[in-house]
Amino acid sequence: MTALLQVEDLDARHGLLQAVRGVSFEVAEGETLALVGANGAGKTTLLRTVAGSHRPSAGRIVFDGADITRLRAHERVALGIALVPEGRRLFPGLTVRENLLVAAHGRGRWSLDTVVEAFPLLAPLLDHRAGSLSGGEQQATAIGRALMTNPRLLLLDEVSLGLAPVAVDAVYRSLQTLIDEGATIVLVEQDLNRALRVAGRIACLLEGRVVLEGTPADLTRERVTEAYFGLRRAGVA
Amino acid sequence: MTWVNGIVQGILLGGVYALLATGLSLMFGVMRIINLAHGSLALVGAYMAVLLVDHTGLNGYEAIAPILPGALIVGYALQRTMLERSLRAGPLVPLLTTFGLLIIIGNLLQKGFSPDSQALDPGELGSKSWSVTSNIAISAFAVLVLGLAVVVLGALQLFLTRTRLGRELRATAEDPETAELVGVNSRAVYARATAIAVATAALAGIFLGMRSAFGPDDGAALLLYAFEAVVIGGLGSLWGTLAGGIALGVAQNIGEQVDPQYFALFGHGLFLIVLVWRAVSETRGIGLGRFLPRRSQGAEA
Prior knowledge:
The complex is a heterodimer of chains A (237) and B (301). In chain A, 32% of the residues lie in helices and 26% in strands.
């Protein structure tokens, strides 16, 4: 079976800092991969490079058999890659409805109606400016906005960051529904327990490299923690 | 009573200024480009109308029909070939390229049309007017221009709020990187914004050319009027731009009542007062940052 997403020997830099070093991984259709790692491990840069917001300095990104390394972000959206960026990045001056509609691309199950159905808390807020929403409401809008592009691959960057625990639970309940429906997801998550619970496979990044990879069943919390903090480097499973 | 007349004429003139200022405001709002060649592009619109009137049977108003689509194409091409590259080289580079464009346009117009001033005939409308009192006459042409400016600004407002392209434009103005992430081609959006800006500038240029004589070096003065209207009216609102244009027109006409030489001076004076008042009022510091609309910062690793 060919993977939906293949990342090969990817390097990404911020000036002199090399944030991602020779990272390779694959994601199969219907799979959920969680990227874990400490702050500065390169998770966000990796997702942004896959989405096309950040230009890689070396390596290849293959999506559905086609090399997309040189495509711009909006072209990758058309192919079916959507990123929910860190910090949500809504358009604050636009209403929730406009935030969703501006992302409406392609045909599929997601439209304004189905997104509101999946996130009922948005229904009364459609005509509010996105800048006036609470963190949880903004996160729901951001995920809904990404879904509006009818993605085949959903990239989620720290969707629980800065949210109240209740809001995090609500966001993950919606995510679980997506996963159960067979969505393909790569998510970055700081909370190891949540990552282990929701993901089919986990990759742990340390200083820009994948140092540990496996299914939650294969990996113990201790091994992930060791890899997370770089206590034992030769742990690639 | 001459004062009242000055105000009335100023209000009527304000419509063209608003039309002239809209494109400048749009390009700055969407791309953070201050297009120093904006007045020159308006001037090119007026000269193209002169060319068409001289060589075809069209009158000044009819010339608008071929010039507008031409201006849209010129704006689109200008963005894709020149401004897009400049923008990639840093925020200050477009300032230099558009300044260069201002100089080149002035020189080309001088070479092509001689330094003599030109005028466009406003036709019968130009001499038609309604006298309200013995001292106040309202020119039909000025009313037409103000009405048209309001219609164009209103249409632009509807375009920005009601259409898909307008939504994409506003989203890109707020956060171009995230707009790309939801499938918006930001470069195409930029080119559309510049196309609209050049078209409205050309339209304003033609009407200004019907109102008074113009020469090849008037680009800088037109740019200044547009800039003043934008700053007086506040950035980011089309109706604010209209208010700014009208305030500028009124100030200039009052100045002209005092002494015909004070026409531009009173406009500049109002601009300066508003600028200082804005800088001092909200906080006490004086900084330009506050005049710029907010833009979210790029996420880091």
